[in-house]
What does this fold into?
Amino acid sequence: MARTGVLIETENGGVKDTSLGVLTAAAGGEIYALVLDTDPAGVKDKLAEYGAAAVVAVKPGSGDAGTSPDLAAELLAAAIKEYELEALLGTASAVGKDLFARLAALLDKPLVSDCVEVNLAEKKVKKSHFSGKTFATLKVNADLLLCTVRPNAVEAVPAPAAGEIMEFTSDAADPGLVKVVEVKKGAADKLDLTEAPIIITGGRAIKAAENYSMLEACAAKLGAAVGASRAAVDAGFAPHSMQVGQTGKTVSPKLYIACGVSGAVQHFAGMKTSKVIVAINEDKDAPIFAKCDYGIVGDIFDVVPVLTEKL
It folds into this structure.
């Protein structure tokens, strides 16, 4: 049976939900869950529940992989060789994109990033092209498939496996090219926009930065993250870190609620793979209504507070 590795991302000692989706994308072979920064005993049960035959603590003989992405890439390369992995998958997060690019360069192997589907048996992946206007299926002609999967693109499905704990220590040396000296995080109570299962976004119709508090109140009831359209960002109502779209962040939540968003193609490119799209807009002719699953023609300042109250 083919062996597939999955790079597991953790937060506060637990497995990120987005990594569970990657485990499901890797189904069909013997899955080795590679953990770089967490005690495997604490995440074993969750990883085993979603298909991990083995949970491998990958450690350096010396150095700190947490402050050296190059050392982390060296460790992953050593683990691929040690366990004879035919593929390595990860999340297309900030961490995943960085590590997989370094790993691909180190191994001189092709990399496909931000995929929405993976076929390990045929070494084929599917990803969006031309700002989401179309999807391409790509075949990787290499002995190793390196691929990152868009957060929430693949829904996690339980598939109980053994989850045997292993430990692999590599004597890989730290190249010392980059050192992370500090990580500055946003508000601890805010979800990462790219990984959030639900997103509520405000467009130009939000009218002012302080009005995002209305969306934040609704988001708190939903367990959602709050986003913004480019028009809202350009108007100074929200920071670029909140922007969803072609020149912002690409998201794929289970539920996307667009409040006062017209639905321009540039915005749609960043959220078209959302599972369910709800639009709230005063303009019954807004393009977003041709692209949503559910639509409400109305003023967001009337509709959103009622939605929050009902929730």
